[in-house]
Write a structure and sequence with these properties.
The complex is a heterotrimer. By secondary structure, chain A is an alpha/beta fold. Chain A is built from 14 helices and 5 strands. Chain A has 2 domains: 18-39 and 170-367, no CATH class; 47-150, abc type-2 transporter like domain (abc type-2 transporter like fold). In chain A, strand 1, helix 3 (58-69) and strand 2 (73-79) form a beta-alpha-beta unit. The longest helix of chain A is centred in the middle third of the chain and has 31 residues, at 171-201. In chain B, 67% of the residues lie in helices and 9% in strands. The radius of gyration of chain B is 29 Å and the shape is elongated. Chain B folds into 2 domains: 2-40 and 177-369, no CATH class; 47-154, abc type-2 transporter like fold (3-Layer(aba) Sandwich). Chain B has 14 helices and 5 strands. The N and C termini of chain C lie far apart (41 Å). Chain C is globular. In chain C, the strands form 2 sheets. Chain C has a 6-stranded mixed β-sheet, sandwiched between helices. A 4-stranded antiparallel β-sheet of chain C has the order 2-1-4-5, covered by helices on one side. Chain C is an alpha/beta fold. In chain C, strand 1 (5-16) and strand 2 (19-30) form a beta hairpin. Classes of the chains: A alpha/beta, B alpha/beta, C alpha/beta. Chains in contact: A-B, B-C. At the A-B interface, helix 2, helix 4, strand 4, helix 6 and strand 5 of A face helix 2, helix 4, strand 4, helix 6 and strand 5 of B.
Chain lengths: 368, 374, 244
């Protein structure tokens, strides 16, 4: 046992002495949370648009001033002809052009309807859609005002209740997401590199020849990263809680348990990677290219899984991160317990077992 | 000059001989391009929808039909009570609950306003907002459509309301295909990551192995060594770009309106910047692991702040200013502008000049900080 | 015979922070001699050598190698010297031929010249059959001899060998020294560091560094007389004991 502790201590020294890597290990999650909290969002704000007013009458002026007053839009330019539209789009100076038809007010009076074209640069379809929707909403409000003397009384109202996140804060999506990504990457990547490095340097053989059992070697290598990942998880949740006022509705104990479980899943994945890598470079590349992008994109972290085409949804099921995000969101934001999350938990346990068994098999083949 | 050729020859041999790395360099990124472009989308679809109909009237059924007919919603079930539905939301099985009150039809006909209850799972704030918009649109649409019938019950004549019609027109991407937007972006991501990581780790590897010391004792000049080392990765970057563009065109049918030559020219300059950063990183790290970590750190931050996933216009002012120093931002913009809008040299020349300047500075710094003598 | 000096060192010093690794050493090396640069691990001999081959900048002092000052004309020094590092730095993932081509090219040899030298080298070392094998698959002794030969491709005036015989069996070591003799006979100066004291016997002159200072410098024969011992090993032990 003492040998084992000595071994683990050596591993800790390795890690803590590498100041640059330490800085990144702890700095990265903090930087990401800060970025997501303060800079990364899909909401539109002060989007540059242009107006082509072919009527220039009192109605159009009123509408334009309403749009100008909206925090979503910034009227960058007034165009004079339709030919100019293509140029401003190509240059990228505005994201949309609102075109008011000729005789706008007159049409409104005589025919009871007039048209506004919302021409948007749809290279970013999301932005284009959002802009169109927001303009539509502003116009709808204006229409209600126009018709206030003829208001239909039989009006269906709706009262909307937003569950779990009434202020629609985006922090609630990304804190679980960042936590998942960081835990997965750090644990899997670091473990695979650490083990492969000993192989590369040749010191792995020394360890295997020593009285330490192979299982002790693996656990010893992996143990410091469990510790580091837990610290990372605590930092991330704390940042979310204290800086961004994210709630922690559920049991802290369950949160800790599930986090450790996920860390172990990630670590076992790292071990598996190390069995198929002959060099550090390979291990790193597999971790990065084989793990990072799929985790970020297919786990439901940024892009909702329900919006993906069916084959992608099926593939996302083999990504451990996907299940962990469900668990984390459930505990933090819904306050649910194991009775609801047992399925996801079991899946993680199963994946861990699978990775470990596979690693052992590969390892044995090597020895022979 | 000849010396450089010798180094380039050696580097290419080493890259191709590394059987483990070759599939990773070529195959993995392209698989990512294929898979991830299909998955990346902010569209909100297949929203799990449930309802509680306390009225069971013709009107309530009509309203529910509207939701059933909508592409956005996927009807999960009808529940006898709101509590049961909320329990399902708790479990994650539904995201929207529409509760129709008793006397819904009667109240509408009797000229009284009536209120529906809408409950939305708002954990994903952005999606919830969009769901709300869709729901409001359907309800408003239904309200509008039954006005003539309702008015008949009450006034006997039909008052025409004023209306302003918004006609949306989506340029460059009529079908609002999110892939068209994401594929060029993901391609940028892959080219960047690959060249940055490989170049930074490559030099550090020689440090770790000891061959760097051997090289430093030879009369080889700094610039010869650096050019020789980085050139293969520059070529690699362009190769990945080519394959990626082919995939984009053939499989994803991404429009390519602009001049492809311009893309190649721009990418060539961009790669100089990335390789310079890789070199710079390798000068300050001792192990491959450190080099990789630092490269990873900067990649993630730069990518998040590049406008690839979320628009730069949505960022607060200070963040937007910070992105001005981010080379990836310019590459993403140019890729999208040239491919999807057909922008030409005049529109991107500012981007080009900035990247040229960047390449000059970062490579200068990197070469200067590479010391053959300690 | 007036021996031309190929290395002149005056008060060479290297300080790392608060630790002085090389404390103002001075010595000279004659052209064509086999000069052994000895010392225990950590005595400072590798640090000193790194200054002589131009990859470490002296904190103070002067050194002239092959007629060039190591600080003022570092690159010219590198053109005139050969180097075999402690790790025998060849590229494991390149073949023997490819390593030869690469290093020959770096030193500015023409492709024709490289081909000629390659044939000579392969014949001399009897490596023709494995010329297209990866260096990584070679046994240590072969790598070592190959490293040495590659260091000499560009026919430098002086070649620096850093612990060249670490980890190989005595027979291979003997063979290696025969190669060194052969080279020295051609007029090439050999500057070799080692902590194998028996190898010290093979050198023309030997210097022994202890804790950053040269405690002894002379031919092996004269040193044994001076310290009244039978072998270089004993000379070294005597010096080391003095330190304690």
């Amino acid at each position: 046992m003492k040998r084992f502790i000595g071994f683990v201590t050596k591993e800790f020294y390795h890690i803590f002495r590498d100041k640059r890597s330490m800085f990144i290990l702890f700095g990265m999650p903090i930087a990401q949370i800060m970025l997501f909290g303060f800079a990364i969002t899909n909401e539109i704000n002060n989007v540059n648009i242009a107006i082509l007013d072919q009527s220039k009458d009192s109605e159009t002026q009123k509408i334009i001033s309403k749009i100008s007053a909206s925090p979503y839009f910034k009227i960058e330019q007034q165009l004079t002809t339709e030919n100019q539209i293509e140029a401003v789009f190509k240059k990228g100076s505005v994201k949309a052009v609102l075109v008011f038809e000729k005789d706008f007010s007159k049409n409104l009076q005589t025919r009871n309807h007039s048209k506004v074209q919302v021409i948007s640069d749809a290279t970013d379809p999301n932005m284009a859609n959002t802009i169109t929707n927001y303009v539509h909403a502003i116009l709808q409000k204006y229409i209600v005002e126009l018709n206030k003397n003829n208001q239909p009384i039989n009006h269906i109202q709706s009262q909307t209740q937003l569950y779990y996140n009434p202020e629609l804060k985006s922090v609630f999506t990304f804190v679980p997401g960042v936590m998942t990504v960081i835990l997965m990457l750090v644990s899997a990547m670091m473990t695979s590199i650490s083990i492969t490095r000993e192989k590369e340097l040749g010191t792995m053989e020394i360890l295997l020849v020593s009285p330490l059992k192979p299982i002790q070697v693996i656990i010893g290598k992996v143990f410091p990263y469990i510790f580091l990942s837990i610290i990372n998880a605590v930092v991330i949740v704390s940042l979310g809680f204290f800086v961004f006022k994210m709630p922690i509705e559920g049991s802290l104990f369950l949160l800790a348990f599930e986090s450790v479980l996920f860390i172990v899943t990630a670590l076992s994945l790292g071990i598996l990677i190390s069995t198929v890598s002959n060099s550090q470079q390979t291990a790193m590349m597999i971790s990065l290219f084989g793990l990072m992008l799929p985790v970020i994109i297919l786990s439901g972290f940024i892009f909702p899984i329900s919006s993906m085409p069916l084959p992608m949804q099926i593939i996302s099921n083999i990504i451990p991160a996907k299940w962990f995000i469900i668990i984390i969101k459930g505990i933090l934001l819904k306050g649910v317990g194991l009775n609801v999350l047992w399925k996801e938990t079991l899946i993680l346990v199963g994946m861990t077992a699978f990775f470990i068994v596979l690693s052992i098999k590969k390892y044995k083949i090597r020895l022979e | 000059m000849k010396t450089i050729l010798f180094i380039i020859q050696k580097e290419f041999k080493q890259i191709f001989r590394n059987k483990g790395m070759l599939p990773i360099i070529f195959v993995l990124p392209l698989i990512q391009l294929l898979i991830l472009s299909n998955a990346a989308s902010f569209e909100v679809k297949n929203i799990p929808f449930s309802f509680v109909d306390n009225d069971h009237s013709k009107v309530s059924r009509e309203l529910i039909e509207k939701f059933k007919a909508s592409d956005y919603f996927k009807i999960i079930d009808e529940f006898p009570s709101k509590n049961k539905a909320v329990a399902e939301m708790q479990k994650g099985n539904v995201d929207v609950i529409l509760e129709i009150p008793v006397n819904f039809e009667k109240d509408l006909i009797k000229n009284r306003g009536t209120t529906l209850s809408v409950s939305i799972n708002a954990i994903d704030g952005a999606s919830a907002g969009i769901m709300n918009v869709y729901i409001s649109q359907i309800i408003a649409g239904y309200n509008q459509s039954i006005q003539p019938q309702l008015v008949q019950y009450n006034y006997g004549f039909y008052v025409q309301l004023k209306n302003i019609v918004t006609i949306p027109s989506f340029w460059y991407n009529e079908t609002l295909n999110y892939k068209t937007y994401m594929v060029p972006g993901i391609l940028v991501l892959l080219v960047t990551m690959l060249t940055l990581f490989l170049s930074s780790m490559n030099i550090v590897r020689e440090k770790e192995m000891g061959t760097l010391e051997q090289i430093n004792v030879t009369p080889i000049k700094k610039y010869q060594f650096i050019i020789g080392k980085l050139f293969p990765f520059w070529v690699l970057g362009l190769v990945i770009l080519t394959v990626g563009l082919i995939i984009a065109k053939i499989i994803f049918k991404v429009p390519m309106l602009g001049n492809i030559g311009l893309i190649y020219f721009f990418t060539s300059v961009y790669l100089l910047v990335i390789l310079g950063i890789g070199l710079f990183i390798s000068n300050f790290t001792e192990t491959q692991q450190q080099a990789m970590f630092i490269a990873w750190f900067f990649t993630v931050i730069f990518i998040l702040m590049s406008g690839l996933f979320t628009p730069i216009e949505s960022m607060p002012k200070w963040a937007q200013n910070v992105t001005l120093a981010n080379p990836i931002r310019y590459f993403v913009e140019v890729m999208r502008m040239v491919l999807l809008k057909g922008s030409g040299f005049p529109e991107i020349k500012q981007h080009l000049f900035i990247l040229f300047g960047y390449a000059f500075i970062i490579n200068g710094l990197a070469v200067w900080s590479y010391k053959k003598t300690n | 015979m007036n021996q031309e000096k190929i290395i002149t060192v005056q008060n060479l010093t290297k300080i790392f922070g608060t630790f002085t690794a090389v404390k103002g050493i001075s010595f000279e090396v004659d052209k064509g001699e086999i000069f052994g640069f000895l010392g225990a691990n950590g005595a400072g001999k590798t640090t000193a050598m790194k200054m002589l081959i131009g990859i470490s900048k002296p904190s103070s002092g002067k050194a002239v190698v092959a007629g060039y000052d190591v600080v003022e004309n570092t690159e010219s020094v590198k053109k005139s010297i050969g180097y075999m590092s402690q790790k025998f730095s060849l590229y494991d993932d390149l073949t023997i031929k490819e390593n030869i081509t690469f290093f020959g090219g770096i030193y500015g040899l023409s492709r024709k010249n490289i081909k000629l030298k390659m044939n000579d080298l392969l014949t001399e070392l009897s490596l023709q059959d494995v010329a297209n094998k990866l260096v990584g698959s070679l046994p240590l002794g072969w790598k070592q001899k190959l490293s040495f030969s590659i260091a000499l491709l560009h026919e430098p005036q002086i070649v620096f060998l850093d612990e060249p015989t670490g980890g190989v069996d005595p027979i291979t070591r003997r063979q290696f020294w025969e190669m060194i003799y052969a080279e020295a006979n051609k007029g090439t100066t050999i500057f070799v560091t080692t902590h194998y004291m028996d190898e010290a016997e093979y050198c023309d002159r030997v210097s022994i560094m202890v804790e950053g200072v040269i405690e002894a410098l002379d031919s092996p024969k004269k040193l044994k007389e001076q310290f009244n011992v039978a072998s270089m090993n004993d000379v070294f032990l005597k010096l080391a004991r003095n330190v304690e």
